[in-house]
Structures are given as C-alpha cells and as structure tokens.
Amino acid sequence: MDSPLQLPEILLYIAPYLTHQDLVVCLTVCRQWNQSFTPLIFHTITAQEDWSTSKNSPSLSSLIKNAHSVRSLTLKTTVGLTPFLEKCTRLKTLVVHGDIFSKQQEDIWIELTSLVRRNPLIERIFLGFQRQHSPSAAFLHALVEACPSLKRYESSQGKYEDQEQVEALMKVLQQIRCASTRYECFTNIPVDTTRTFPHMRELTLKDAKGLSTQSQVDFVSHCPNLEHLKWTVCRDTFFPVQQFCERVPAACPNLRKLQMDGCGIPYPSDLSRIVNSLTQLELLAFCGTAIFPRTFRSMERHFRTLRSLDVVDCFSVKSWMVQATLEGCPLLETLKVPYLVMSDVEIGKPWASLRLKQLHVHFRPTAVCGQDFITQHKATFRALGRLTELQVLDTSTFDPKGPTGLQYRLDLGMASLETLGKLSALSVINTRQDIEDEELSWIMSHWPLLTKLEGTFHHDWEQHEMVTKKLRARGIEVPDQREPDLDCDIKPWAFDHSNDKEPEDEEMDEYNEYDDEGDDDGYLYYYSENEEEDDESTGDTWIFDQAQDHDTSYSDDNNSDIDIVMSSTFLKATPRGGGGGTLRRSTRLARRTRAYYESEEFQSTVPDYYLESRECDTNWRHGEDFLEGDPGIDGGGGGELEQEGAGAGGSKGLGRAGLGADANTEANTPLFWIVIPPWPSHSGLSSPSPLSSPIHDVDYNNDNDSVNHEEEDGSGCEYSSAHSTSSLTRRGEGKIMDSPSSPPSNPDSNNNGNKSNIINIVMEMDPEPETDAPSPQASDRSDESVQWWSIAQNMAIWGSVDYLGLEGQWDKVAFALGLKPIPRVMQQLEEEYYRLRELKDSGMLFNGQDE
Questions:
Q1: How far apart, in Å, are the Cα atoms of 788 and each of 610, 774, 778?
Q2: What is the pLDDT of residues 26-75, one digit of tens each?
Q3: In the chain, where are the structural domains located?
C-alpha cells in the first residue's frame, strides 16, 4: 500500500465532505477509488419523469447493476423502472410524489406494496398526494407486516374515505416513533382514537380536515411518551384550548418541544394558557400570532430549560422581550426573533445565552451617527463576541429601505468578534454595509470556518462586487445580489417618513393595490412604524386619513365636523408628531366607517349616541414621560423624546389618550371625541339619558396647565375629549391643520371651520364569563344585543367577526369592512380580532364603568 488514501475506511471518512460532482471525478482516479466511491454515488437516487432521456440520470442498466447500493429512493415516476425496483432490497428511505398517482396506472399501489415488502430495512416513508389520493389498505398493512424498522411515516394531502384505510393507518402509527400528517382530509370517517401509541415521540398535525379537534386532542393524549408536538388546527376550526390544557400535560409528561404555526394558531391569550400548562419546555416555535406581555411572561417560566425559541414570524415581539430572553436563557442554542434595539443591549445586563449556535435577529441602532451610534455598535459587538459557540449569525431584515442595522466595521468595534472562530454562515441582507479591504482581510483571517456570506457588502456597487469576487476566490459561497435601482421612486412598503417596518411583516407585493388613485372612497392608507424611539410603545398602526384637502370634512346629524381618524393612530414618538392611545392595532377603521355613520342603518339602530367632552391633561411634559408604562395600558406620548411640548397624555383605558403633534409646538392636544353606544338591556345596566347638558358646560377656553373634567352617568359610561389651541401635524400628508381656538358654543350648530376631530369608539361591553367556546353568534342574542354587537364592536373588527359569524373567514371580514382581501390585510384583521379577544378576557375592555 503506497498511500493511506487507498484504505477504503479513509475514503469513506472523506466522502461526506465532497460534493456529488467531486465524487464523480473520484470515480476516474483508479479502480480502487471507483469501487469505494461507486456506492456513494448511488446512495441517493431520484427518478425524475424524464429519467430515460435526461443526460444527468444514470442508465437503466447502471441502476440495475448498483441497485443494492441505493439507500434513499425518490419516485416521481415508475414507468420503465420495474426491473430496477425489483433489485432494490436495502432501502431505508422511500419518498413518493403526488404526480405519480395522477399520471400513472391505477395499480401503482400494487407495485409500491411489492417494493415495500422487499425492503424490510425501511425506516422512513413519505407520501405526497394531491387531495384526491391516499395509500391503499394493502400498502399500509405491508408497512406493519414487512417493515419492523419503520420509525417515521409522513403523509401530505391525502384523502381518506375508507374506514379500512384509517384502521390500517392507526396500526402503522402504533409502531412508529415519528408521524406527520399535513392537510389530510378524513371524509365522514369516525376515527378510533382510543388506541395508545406508546412509541410515538414526535407528532405533526397540520390542518387535519374532517378530524374533529376533540379527536385530535384524544389522539395526542394517547401518546404517553410524546416529546415533540407540532400542531396547527384548520382556520375554520375552533381550537380546544381548555381540553388541551387539562388533558395533554397530564397525558404527555415528557412533552418538551411545542410548535404551533400557521392560520390555526390559537388566540394570544389562549397561547399563554397553553404555555403555562406545560413544564420544562426545551423548544418553543410560534408564527402568525401576537406575543403579548402576558404570553411572554408565560414563556419566561421555561427560560431555565429552553434550548430553542423561534418567534421571528410573530407580531408584537418587542426589543425588551428579546433582551430579556438573552439575559435569562442559559441553555439557549437557537434564537430567531424579529429585532433587537441596540440601546437595550448597551444598557441591559450581560447575556446568559452563551451556548447560542444560531442567532437570527436584526439589530437596530437608535442613532444614525455620532457617539451614540458608535457606543451602541461597540456594546453590541462585545455582547456578540461572548457567544463563542456561534455558528450561524443572521442580522438581516426583510425591509431593503429600513433601519441601517448592524454595520460590520472595525472602527465600530467589529474586532470584538474575533472569538467567533466557529462561525460558518453570516447574513447581512438589506442592511447597510461598508466593508473595505481592511474588514475583508480581518474576516478571512479570524473566521476560518466561514463558508457562506450573503448580502450587499458596500453601498458602492463596484466595491461590493470586488468583495464578492475575493470571497468566492477563498471558497466562500456568496449568493448573487441584485444591484439596487437608485432611481426607483416606488418604496417597498406603504410608509411614513420614518420608513421603518417590522421584519416579520409581509412584503408588499400588493403595494399597487393600495395606491390611492384606484380608490373611490376618499381614503388613503399608510403603514406607519418607527420603533427606534420606544420599542415598547406601539408597533405598527394603520392610519385611515382622508385624501381630500385638510379642511374637508363631513357632518353627522348633529352637524359636528368629524374627521374619521382614531386617536391611537398617532401613537408614534416622531419629530412630526405622535400622541397617546392604548391599543396599537385596535383602531384600524374600515373604509366603510364614514359611510356607515351617514347611513340610515346607523341612524335608525342607534338614535341616541352620546357625545361628551372634557379637557385632557394639558400639563406639557417631556415626550419620554408619556412613553413609559406598561404597553397597551398607559396612553400618552408624542413628539421627539426629551423634547419640550411633546404632547399630552391621557387617562388609562381604551383610547383615552392625548394626541401629540410637532415636538416644537406648544399646547398641542387637538380635540377628539369618545363615542359611547347605549348599553343593551341584558347587561343589567341602565341606559344613559339622551345627549346631556354637560357638553355645553365644558370650558373650551381653559388654558390652565392641568385640567381634568370627567362626567359620568348612571351607567358608568365615561366621555372624554381633548382640545387643541394650536396647530398639529397630520401624519401621512405632513400638512399643518389649524385647530380652532374655541369650538362653537352650541355643538348642534353648523361649523365650517377647519377643525380636526377624532372619533374614538370605546367598546364598553358587558362582561361575559371566560369560556373556551366561541363567541355567540347573532342568532343566539336578543334584538337589542344584536344591535349592540353589530354597532359597537363592528367599529373595531369584533362585530364583523362574531356578529356575522365570520371568525376564520378573514377574506369575508375584509369585504364586510370595505377592505381589499389581500393576504396582509387579512392577517392584520385576524391579529386585531385576537387582540380584542385578549383584552376582553382580561377585563380591559370593560373598565369604562370602573374608572
């Protein structure tokens, strides 16, 4: 033997590090290498539909000759492959795609059944259907009888119409460790879930239609050794939260990993209950739901054992939550979150998650230049430098025109990352980078295991291409990037001047659908986000603003000018304005709101709407003072942080907060109204009297520093407004509107002045006992109740969901509210409804009578 490389054991050790093309080259080196590497070439075979004519596919004779080496087989066709399949006897993985069932003969299951019986070593089966096929009972029986090594069975989009099939499937599931069913349909078949599945360790249930949620809970509860659960209930199916919390934790004491995603995610409040019911979770992954503070507190119970957390596709994930996670999870190895404000890293405690191997987070600086910009970068790099086990670092964002992100520059402290010797992949997509030769040399010398780097590396495209070329020359994979179009005026998001956006929000492929030129209802839509100032305060908000000139308004029956904008629209602390509010997404009024106020339905159903007014707090303080407090509870804020005259705060409660304006404007709380509908008779509360006189007694000219005026009647309803004595900045348009120095002495008189009012619908609903059942439909309520629900709650999505019975049908909800049913709108309607449900469950929606 002339060389150790002639030893088959050495060659087999090297082979996994070679690409398929490298293995093909190795076959030609010598006879011994050919014999050693040939089994690896045929280890994994995919039979494409055009295998017989494709130059990249081996010949049939070659397949037959090496069939004994095939361990993983993917079939997209079996035409002409029968001689090869008959020689395959050592398969461990079999994957069958859906096209094979629709394009081939009906006896395909006979051929697959024979294949399975010839391969007793099979460990994994994956079957992909097209909603019209399913495995035959004979095939499933063959798995039970001939495949004792079977550990994993996965099926997608199958349709089960035969009881015998389901019975055979249950027998398969009783002997395997991992099962996955995705988008399966069980047509009128009662599934016996009384069996136990003692070997089941990992279970995926995704949109099992026709299988009741009760049956799914029963199934999960009969897996006593279950460790990993991935569960998504169909959109139109009620999630059995109470049953889950009562049965699953007791029946599955070893459950340590929980993933819930997609459209079937439970309500945020229900998510808290689920997380609270489990103990010592090691993996948590959610998407498509909101992570409220209550939900996060539930997750904190598992920080000591948590190894993986993925909430990157969730709403309302705040920077302080991410920082707290890094400070409190010592065993964490994988973290995927939307963003982390760098100032939180700077002032926060040292991270305890020193075992991190994968970190996906977009770092946001709160300064764009200057000393703060530098110190925040250095603090962030120091924190990252302590993660010596890190292998994958992703600091990218979805927004190509969003915040600058973490900049990898030596003068900003990048040298602190010299300890990341195990780093293999880095992503900086959509972040501003200025990597020069000095940084490039540093990367190549300090990260020897780096194999992939993606993103745009310099604002100068030629420099980016130069860096890309050098990286590829060193064998580092660099995906191609498109040169940015600097002349393009179309921005990727509906935006305000801050041009900021949450990374988890969808790309606006439907941007043009929101263009105001195609709208005939006179409303513009703005998607507003600027969380560098205060990451706890608001999040994204919809702004529904009139497209006409700023002095355009309309009159209701009381002839009072009303501009249909909600007060919590102005939640952001920006240089152009801001203000208070309590719910970030509770005020997405429909386009139809204005027409609804003018409609006969509104006038006939609720003839007595009560408008009261009061002076809001006019004691101007720093905007920072108003941005403190629990998110979703305290209102207030407006203007730049730490700037005088930033805007007024408001009282706690739903929407009772001031409206800020330009930071340099004094006394800038504009007039807004709180509209309270009458109480239904079944609430047990007396209805308030018709429009009462205190509205005439309000001192609109009061210029004292601090004036609070509240009126309550027998029902406990509260009415409030705030009055502005100066101009304010309208968001979205950037125009200045003049508010009157004093309102008309008679609210019923006609007003032609340029006044900006804000309607704030306060949903003072009657409390109902907490239950897991869905909200009653209209048919379950009295006539007065129906009126109450259809008007008061419809203003904030609730009515169109519960009253119309459209929960889960967000496209119809969008139509009902006059919105276009595009994915992003439907997703936010769904999120809004869940937010209101949580507030209702927590009692925050009923506190008007208690204040």
A1: 14, 18, 11
A2: 777 777 777 777 777 888 888 887 776 776 677 888 888 888 889 999 98
A3: 1-41, 43-174, 318-489, 778-849
Contact assessment for residue 669 and residue 776, using Cβ atoms and an 8 Å cutoff:
no
Token match 């498109």: residue?
Answer: 482
Q: Within a 10 A sphere around the Cβ of 646, how many other Cβ atoms? A: 32
Which tens digit of pLDDT belongs to each residue from 207-259?
888 888 888 888 999 999 999 999 887 666 677 888 889 999 999 999 999 99
| Listed residue (115, 111, 206) closest to 154, CA to CA | 206
Q: Is the pLDDT of residue 185 over 70?
A: yes
Collapsing DSSP to helix, strand or coil, 179 comes out as strand
The answer to whether 276 and 294 have CB atoms below 8 angstroms apart is no
Helix residue ranges, H only, 53-150:
60-65, 82-87, 99-103, 108-117, 137-146
SS3 718: strand
Q: How far is it, in rounded angstroms, from Cα 155 to Cα 161?
A: 15
Identity of the highest mean pLDDT range in 19-23, 273-277, 762-766: 273-277
Tell me the β-bridge partners of 87.
none
pLDDT band per the 50, 70, 90 thresholds, residue 121: very high
Asked if residue 704 lies in contact with residue 767, where contact means CB atoms within 8 angstroms, the answer is no
Bigger pLDDT: 80 vs 484: 80
pLDDT at residue 685, as a whole number: 27
Q: Which residues make beta-bridge pairs with 75?
A: 47, 96
For residue 816, which phi and psi values (nearest 5 degrees)? -65, -30
Using DSSP, state whether 124 is helix, strand or coil.
strand
Rg (CA), the chain: 31
> What whole-number distance in Å separates Cα of residue 837 and Cα of residue 269?
8
Angle at 13 (CA atoms; ends 9, 14), nearest 5 degrees: 120
What is the CB neighbour count within 10 angstroms for residue 98?
18
pLDDT tens sequence across 484-541: 665 554 433 322 223 333 333 322 222 222 233 333 332 222 222 332 233 333 333 2
**How far apart are the C-alpha atoms of 121 and 126, rounded to whole Å?**
15
- According to CATH, what is the number of the domain 318-489? 3.80.10
Apex CA 384: angle with CA 380 and CA 387, to 5°?
160
- CATH code for the domain defined by 43-174: 3.80.10
Kind of pairing, strands 334-341 and 308-315?
A: parallel
| Cα–Cα distance list, 584 to 319, 537, 657, 760, 797 (Å) | 16, 8, 12, 13, 14
**Do residues 330 and 355 make contact, with C-beta atoms less than 8 angstroms apart?**
yes
- Angstrom distance (rounded) from CA 581 to CA 571: 6
What is the separation of C-alpha 372 from the centre of its chain, rounded to a whole number of angstroms? 31
Structure token digits, residue 786: 């129906």
Q: What percent of the chain has pLDDT over 90?
A: 30
pLDDT score recorded for residue 673: 26
DSSP-assigned states of every residue in 570-639: ----BTTB-B--S-SSTT---TTHHHHHHSHHHHHH----EEE--PPP-----HHHHT-S-TTT-----S
Q: Find all residues with CB under 8 Å of 132, minimum gap 6, and list them.
A: 102, 159
- Which H/E stretch holds residue 372? helix 370-385
CA-to-CA dists, residue 484 to 363, 376, 400, angstroms? 22, 28, 9
Please state the rounded mean pLDDT for residues 132-143: 88
- Distance separating alpha carbons of residues 578 and 537, to the nearest angstrom: 11
Question: What are the tokens at 643?
Answer: 């700037």
Q: Is 601 exposed, middle or buried (0-12, 13-18, 19+ CB in 10 A)?
A: exposed
